[in-house]
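Q: A reviewer asked whether we had any structural model of the full assembly, not just the individual parts. We don't, so I'm hoping you can provide one. Inputs are below.
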Amino acid sequence: AQSVSQHNHHVILSEAASLELGCNYSYGGTVNLFWYVQYPGQHLQLLLKYFSGDPLVKGIKGFEAEFIKSKFSFNLRKPSVQWSDTAEYFCAVPKRGTYKYIFGTGTRLKVLA
Amino acid sequence: DAEITQSPRHKITETGRQVTLACHQTWNHNNMFWYRQDLGHGLRLIHYSYGVQDTNKGEVSDGYSVSRSNTEDLPLTLESAASSQTSVYFCASRRDFGTDTQYFGPGTRLTVL
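A: Here is a predicted structure for the entire assembly that you could use as a starting point for your response.
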């Protein structure tokens, strides 16, 4: 069965530190991948998505993610985090043959000012 | 602008009461979803609908029901609220397969006493 796993459940960083959040998926075929962000008290918003082409995807607010097919990974990165990046981050993949998404359990990022 | 709204945003109820959470989207999306978000579990799918008169159970559907009488609305009903249903509930919609983003509502925080 398809699955998505996020191994970092809680991450604490200081401002200006670099960020990398892991996301691994199970399905080996054509895959579309998403990262969503949920700021405190708000709903989920799309950060970036990958469908095809350049495996390095640029998103909003300086985030990027790299699709590495051989590693079944789609890790989220930001070179220098800000306090305002404090949020929960979810990786997601559409379930094949359906309109549903499979979400990872999320990673809570806290950035210290 | 098209949007997805939920009401109420906060609700406190008692065990055993019937509760209905509203979800309304103006994108004319056929596909709508209800999730609950709990610490340590991420987002879990409760019910979903692929169109009018279509409803399907998700992974945590026990104690919940939905109905889809038009494209815009997918109300979620807790038949007899239980304390285990205290959670934050998110409604989402999506247009089509693959490339389309899933859009989320602002969430409803439900407390069952």
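A: Points you may want to mention in the reply: Chain B touches chain A at residues 31, 33, 35, 40-43, 45, 48, 50, 58, 90, 92, 94, 96-99, 101-102, 104-107 (CB under 8 Å). Residues 16 and 81 of chain B are 5 Å apart (CA to CA).
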